[in-house]
Amino acid sequence: MNTSIQNCMVAQSGGPTVAINASLAGVIKGAAGCYGTVYGSVNGILGILNEHYLNLSEIMESDDNALERLIHTPAMYLGSCRFKLPDFMDDDSSYNYIFKQFEKLNIGAFFYIGGNDSMDTVLKLSEYAERIGSNVRIIGIPKTIDNDLMVTDHTPGFGSAAKYIASSLLEIAHDTFIYAVKSVTIVEIMGRDAGWLTAASALARNEYSDAPHLIYLPECNFDKDEFLTDVRALLEEHNNIIIAVSEGLHDAEGNYICAGESKEDTFGHSQLSGAGKALEYLIKDNINVKVRSVEVNVLQRCAAHLSSATDLNEAVASGEHAVAFAKQGITASMVTMNRTSNAPYTIEYGYAEIKNIANEAKSVPRAWINERGNDVTEEMVAYLLPLIQGETSISYENGLPNYMNVSHLTNKR
Q: Site positions for Important for catalytic activity, renumbered to this chain (predicted)?
């Protein structure tokens, strides 16, 4: 094996976004000339444990348009996982195997693209690398539509999801306003612990529409009586009321407002659904008005047709900066973005130690929510607006988007 130039490896983990493949493309672009082969671990950290890799360098070289298509392909080209590494002080067998794979493939840097749970993996691998004296650089690249990673101003993937949410709320408003009857439409949006994505619904407002008329985030305790009071008051002024709510709504005692029991995933996070349906039932039982609930659910995660150009460009740059930081000797860190101006919108890229990011969640500042807890402030709108700017050009074939072939995820090995 030629060891004069080291190789690198990249993987993706957690939930999909429109921009996560753009970060993968950024790693591939940044690695050119810095590393030999860029290996892709299929299905996150599990790909290393299962020795399931793609030679991304060969794949990109075989098609001149592959890298551009990858940038505009939603979800994860390398697949994902929600695998929680054990504490290596209890069981280091997985870690030992992973770092033997790094040695076997002459890996000099490992890049993990993901959200909170993925940064937990980055932290654990970094700590183990330090313990055994490994020179493999471990760098996290942020991704999450929830926008709840600490230290960084925002996360790639959020801007495109926010654009989808705002566009959908505007379209729901057009759909609803055609009927001159009293009605309430409740839109449930993803956000278990942080309401950033639900807050983005405020961007749907314009000169002819105030919708959504109410916005409820999990950062504030939800009061059913106050909610009914708010709805009744608005129905005195409008025929049609549209309400945006986070899936993680909870009361003052911490009980989730949902239609059924919540379950937990492998990282101990509650799997919620039914906040919108619960509020639909609440209105039906207390107010004589037509009411329906809409659960956006996973739709905003991979809506590449409504991606934000700002979001994709920043995702690519995040991947490129991750490679640059690794070559500088940086490790045990995550790429960050620091906003330097809202108008004109400018950011600076940097990095922060992963120990200050993993297993933490960034909430919407209380000052960006109104006093009653049923709307967001102009400061929130000013923060959000730059992130949804710009449209992207997607190639089409037979009337449908021409995305990257992901048969390696659907075919049995």
A: 143
